[in-house]
Amino acid sequence: MTVFVKRRELAAAGSIADALDIFGSEIRFYREIAPVIGIRVPICYRAEETEDGTLLELEDLSAWTPGATPDGAAHTLRLLHSRWEGEAVRRWPWLRPVGAAVDLVGRLYDETWPRLANLPPAVQAVGERLVGNVAAAERQLLDAGPLTLVHGDASAQNLRTSPTGEVALLDWEDVSAAPGILDLGWFLLTSVDPNDWPATIAVYGHDTGLDDVLPSLIVQGLLSLADHSPDSPAAETWRHHLDAAAKRLDN
C-alpha cells in the first residue's frame, strides 16, 4: 500500500495560516468529518498534532486523473453542500466562520493591489472598489445562503477522478462553514472556462448567492494573480476568468 505523507511545520506567528489554523483544521477534518462526510476523500490512516506541527498519512490517489470534469465537480459539490446544510455548524462548532482573519486578508489585498497591472477594465473597476472594503465583501457572504460544510479551495488542483469517474476532494486545510455557492464560485473562477459556467451551474442546480460571493472570490483571485509573472499563461487565464466574474457583477 502506498501512503501519501503530509507534514506541516507550525505556521508563522501572526500569518494568515496561523490565524486560520489551517493545519490544525485539516487534522480535525480527517479525525471528525471525513468518516461521515458522504463524498469521496482520501482514507486517513494517521492524523496527529505535535508541538512541531502536524502529520497526516493518507491514501495515495496520485494514480487517479488530476482534476475533474466541470459536471463531475459540480455534482460532487452539490452532494456535499446539500448533505450538511444547516447541520455542519451544529455538529462541528469549531469550523472556521465567515470573515475569519478578514483584517489580515484585507491588509494583504490593499498592499497587493497597487502592484497589479494590465487588468481588463471591468476587473480594474471592481478591484479598485474592493480596496479598503474587503471586510464588507466578506460580510456579504452571509447573504449568499444557508451555512453548510465547504471545502474552501475547490479548484481543479484539489480534485482527482478515478478510472470509474468517481471524484475525490483533497487538501482540506480551508474547511469552513459558509454558503455552499462559495465553493462553486471558486471552482468556476479557478477551473472552468467562462463559456462553460452556465452548464456547470445547471449541474449544481442553482446560482443563488453567486453574485454575493463574487467580490470575496475576486479578492482571492487577484491575490492569486499577483503570484504569477504578468506575461505567463497562468496570469492570462486568471485575467480572463476574473474579467468574466467582474462583468457578471456589473451586469
What is shown here, in short?
InterPro entries: Aminoglycoside_PTrfase, Kinase-like_dom_sf. This is Phosphotransferase family enzyme. By secondary structure, the chain is an alpha+beta fold.
Please describe what this structure looks like.
With 251 residues, the protein is of the alpha+beta class. It has a single domain, classed as Aminoglycoside phosphotransferase (APH), C-terminal lobe (Aminoglycoside 3'-phosphotransferase, Chain: A, domain 2, Alpha-Beta Complex), CATH 3.90.1200.10. The protein has eleven helices and eight strands. Strands 1-3-2 form a three-stranded antiparallel beta sheet, with helices on one face. A three-stranded antiparallel beta sheet has the order 4-6-7, covered by helices on one side. Strands 5-8 form a two-stranded antiparallel ribbon. Strand 6 and strand 7 (167-169) form a beta hairpin. Helix 3 (70-84) packs parallel to helix 9 and helix 8 packs across helix 10. It is globular and about 50 Å long. The relative contact order is 0.16.
Features:
about 250 residues; alpha+beta; 8 strands; three-stranded antiparallel sheet; 11 helices; Aminoglycoside 3'-phosphotransferase, Chain: A, domain 2
Q: Report helical residue fraction.
A: 40-55%
Shape: globular
Percent of residues in beta strands:
5-15%
Main beta sheet: strand number and arrangement? 3 strands, antiparallel
CATH superfamily: Aminoglycoside phosphotransferase (APH), C-terminal lobe
Number of beta-strand segments: 8
Structural class: alpha+beta
Number of continuous helical runs:
11
Query: What's the number of domains?
Result: 1
Spatial strand arrangement across the major sheet: 1-3-2
